[in-house]
């Protein structure tokens, strides 16, 4: 170790959900880590980001920090009804008696990312893990023995491994020379959060609604999702739209009144417009197998199907598992293999997720005649065949499967 540094063997760049999960997952395996975060402690992390947390993510968080998964379950909600409309007419609706399933951890929960992050901060504090604020990672030098990092506050850090969880603009990714190229959605999406104190898990009539070509939004697709304390409103722009103009406060107020009712006129909390990127790094590890990329530093996914933070948490857990095994290893070859196995697994998972989110995006934007025809045919058959309406209800989120499990070995 050299410079003004830490005794922890692992450095983590970024205190987003993925960096914090990595630190907790390492701690659970008996390995201490130091988090280096570019921003200051009093930063504002508000904005419309992840709300849909998969059951597998909740189970991971519960496993690495008992109580964290169930706290999020208590804070979140599970809506019992999924409903879809097509040009003003209902084409599908289903209400589940037990929408979350029967165990302590439901199939999903709907909770804003700011709340998830607040619980992660508490968990870090409970585990005695420090975040070094105002410490932007600027330089990364790896060697076969470890990693040397320099931060914007003039400090230098040495560790055995570095996890780059520093988000979409990742410096760590650039420093290891990974390429990051991909596609951008054709249309913009306007995403807003609307406050509603009444919304909590005790309400039996909560619904997630998807509306194709909604008349209230002048023929745009609209998604409305409840979360504890409010609603996520997602409006898909159409050709010729100016996202800036549509996301202005006055125009949003009109949308909110038309789509949700006048009682919500003053409840707009925040709004942003996005073009979604679909891209992954061409390698998740450096040449010396000492730096691992995780979360949005490694991949950016369109949010339909909610694979961003959820897959980032899986990256974090697997990165921690690989590093813990590598730290205990007695040969350099095993160290390299553990890290390479991480890369093989999570690159494969990212490819799968990219493809799944891409299918959802293409379906939503799809102006190709086959997709248009299928939607129209399904909508016209939905009164007679439930399966047609169910397909319309399902399709905006992409396929349901999970990424393949990748192992080493010659089979
Ligand atoms: C509208 C929208 C809806 C979404 N919905 C969902 C959803 O329902 N479910 C889901 O799973 N995902 C969703 N996502 C995706 C989710 O928000 C992201 O995947 C998640 O925030 C990624 O976490 P991260 O920790 O990798 O990166 P970030 O959250 O970007 O965190 C990166 C951290 O690194 C810090 N940092 C940056 N550079 C440096 C540096 N050089 N040195 C040190 N620190 C640095 C940043 O300040 C930040 O704290 C959504 C995203 C959007 C935009």
From TrEMBL:
Residues in FAD-binding domain copies: 8-354
SUPFAM superfamilies the record matches: FAD/NAD(P)-binding domain
Coiled-coil regions, chain positions: none
InterPro entries xref list: FAD-bd, FAD/NAD-bd_sf, PheA/TfdB_FAD_monoxygenase
GO MF annotation terms: monooxygenase activity
Pfam families tied to this protein: FAD_binding_3
Domain of life from the UniProt record: Archaea
Keywords from the named record: Monooxygenase, Oxidoreductase
Signal peptide span: none
PANTHER family given in the database record: 3-(3-HYDROXY-PHENYL)PROPIONATE/3-HYDROXYCINNAMIC ACID HYDROXYLASE, FAD-BINDING MONOOXYGENASE
Protein name according to UniProt: FAD-dependent monooxygenase
């Amino acid at each position: 170790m050299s410079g003004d540094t830490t005794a922890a063997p692992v450095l983590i760049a970024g205190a987003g959900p993925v960096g914090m999960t990595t630190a907790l997952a390492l701690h659970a395996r008996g390995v201490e880590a130091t988090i280096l975060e570019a921003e200051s402690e009093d930063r504002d992390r508000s904005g419309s980001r992840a709300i849909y947390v998969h059951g597998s993510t909740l189970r991971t968080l519960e496993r690495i920090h008992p109580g964290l998964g169930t706290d999020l379950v208590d804070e979140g909600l599970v809506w019992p009804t999924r409903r879809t409309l097509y040009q003003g007419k209902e084409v599908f609706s289903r209400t589940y008696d037990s929408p979350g399933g029967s165990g302590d951890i439901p199939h999903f929960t709907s909770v804003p990312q700011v709340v998830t992050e607040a619980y992660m901060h508490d968990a870090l504090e409970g585990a005695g893990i420090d975040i070094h604020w105002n410490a932007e990672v600027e330089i990364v030098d790896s060697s076969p023995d470890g990693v040397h990092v320099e931060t914007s506050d003039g400090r230098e850090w040495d560790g055995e491994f570095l996890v780059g969880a520093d988000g979409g603009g990742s410096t760590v990714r650039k420093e290891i020379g990974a390429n990051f190229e991909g596609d951008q959605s054709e249309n913009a999406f306007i995403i807003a959060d609307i406050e509603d104190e009444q919304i909590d898990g005790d309400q039996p009539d909560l619904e997630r609604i998807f509306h194709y070509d909604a008349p209230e939004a002048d023929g745009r697709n609209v998604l409305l999702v409840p979360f504890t304390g409010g609603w996520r409103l997602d409006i898909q722009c159409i050709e010729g739209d100016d996202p800036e103009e549509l996301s202005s406060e006055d125009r949003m107020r009109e949308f909110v009144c038309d789509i949700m009712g006048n009682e919500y006129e003053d409840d707009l909390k925040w709004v942003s417009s996005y073009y979604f990127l679909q891209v992954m790094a061409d390698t998740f590890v450096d040449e010396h197998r000492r730096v691992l990329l995780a979360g949005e530093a490694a991949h950016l996914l369109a949010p339909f199907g909610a694979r961003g933070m959820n897959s980032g948490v899986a990256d974090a857990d697997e990165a921690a598992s690989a590093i813990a095994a590598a730290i205990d290893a007695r040969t350099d070859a095993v160290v390299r293999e553990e890290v390479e196995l991480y890369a093989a697994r999570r690159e494969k998972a990212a490819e799968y997720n990219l493809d799944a989110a891409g299918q959802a995006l293409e379906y939503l934007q799809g102006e190709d005649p086959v997709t248009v025809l299928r939607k129209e045919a399904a909508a016209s058959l939905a009164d007679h065949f439930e399966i047609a309406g169910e397909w319309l209800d399902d399709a905006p989120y992409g396929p349901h499967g999970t990424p393949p499990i990748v192992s080493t070995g010659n089979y």
